[in-house]
Amino acid sequence: NPPQDFEIVDPGYLGYLYLQWQPPLSLDDFDECVVEYELKYRNIDSESWTALKRRFTHFCQGNAQMDQKFKVRGQKLHIGHHYKGLDHALECSDYTKNNEKNIGCRFPYLESADYKDFYICVNGSSESKPIRSSYFVFQLQNIVKPLPPDYLSLTVKNSEEIILRWDLPRGPIPARCFIYEIELTEDDTTWVTTTVANEMYITKTSKESQQFCFLVRSKVNMYCSDDGIWSEWSKEQCWK
User: Fold this and answer.
1) What share of the chain is helix, strand, coil (3-state, %, to 5)?
2) Which residues make Cβ contacts (< 8 Å) with residue 227, sequence separation at least 6?
3) 43, exposed or middle or buried, with CB in 10 Å at 0-12, 13-18, 19+?
4) Is residue 149 within 8 Å of 166, Cβ to Cβ?
5) Cα 46 to Cα 125: distance, rounded to the nearest angstrom
6) 235 vs 189, 190, 227, CA distance in Å?
7) What does each C-alpha distance from 28 to 24, 32, 54, 87, 202 come to in angstroms?
8) What DSSP string describes 35-71?
9) CA–CA separation, 64 vs 15, rounded Å?
10) What is the pLDDT of residue 53?
11) Is 175 helix (H, G, I), strand (E, B) or coil?
């Protein structure tokens, strides 16, 4: 059966709509299955539909246009179906904090970090008035923070040429999706450069320099995400 009680609520914010519905009637063996919903919408003057798949019975449409059409349908999925990463809703158990306020959440390791819809519900409580929950949908590759590179090595050849190498960050992100930022220090001079490879050849600026150090951080590049998030810096590697 189709989902029931489908309605569109206008909360009074310009360009913002809240869509909600109820599960279909007569679901057999509901305890052993979950329902995935496909929501489609389009402008009335367009023939093409935009489709979203989700497991919640609501959706927030920001920047909504006038004269849009919406429709929703559902399908049963067995809990043991092939789905990488989190297969059910989880409450955050490890918040990141700033000045005692929750500003983020660390989730368990996800097997696949690319092109998966990731649904977030942010809620809260207040003694003065109810707080409406906010819902967001992301693609994982746009919000993932990679681990920093490790096993840095520094080799000096012919007293001038330097070879910098490091291992790929651990995790499921393909090598082609990384960009690296390298901070280099030669004696008292520091500069920063970037590369898409996990090695770099450079030349010392002075034959008399006594120390050379570098550290690296990584993020998912613009070919694999909208805008990646830089990892923490690696441990420093030095030559004297």
Assistant:
1) 5, 45, 50
2) 142
3) middle
4) yes
5) 41
6) 19, 16, 24
7) 10, 9, 20, 20, 66
8) EEEEEEEEETT-SPPEEEEESSSEEEEETPPSSEEEE
9) 5
10) 72
11) helix
- Tokens representing 122 are 């942010």
- Nearest residue to 201 (alpha-carbon basis) of 187, 188, 184: 184
Q: What is the pLDDT of residue 21?
A: 87
pLDDT at res. 48 = 76
Identify the pLDDT of residue 84: 43
CA torsion, ordered 195, 200, 203, 208, to nearest 10 deg: 110
Structure tokens at 145: 């923070």
Please answer whether residues 217 and 234 qualify as being in contact, where contact means their C-beta atoms are separated by less than 8 angstroms: yes
Cα 22 to Cα 34: distance, rounded to the nearest angstrom: 14
Task: Give residue 165's pLDDT.
Answer: 93
At 78 the pLDDT is 43
Determine the pLDDT at residue 148.
92
Q: What is the CA radius of gyration of the chain?
A: 25
pLDDT < 70 regions, the chain: 13-15, 27-34, 62-66, 75-88, 108-117
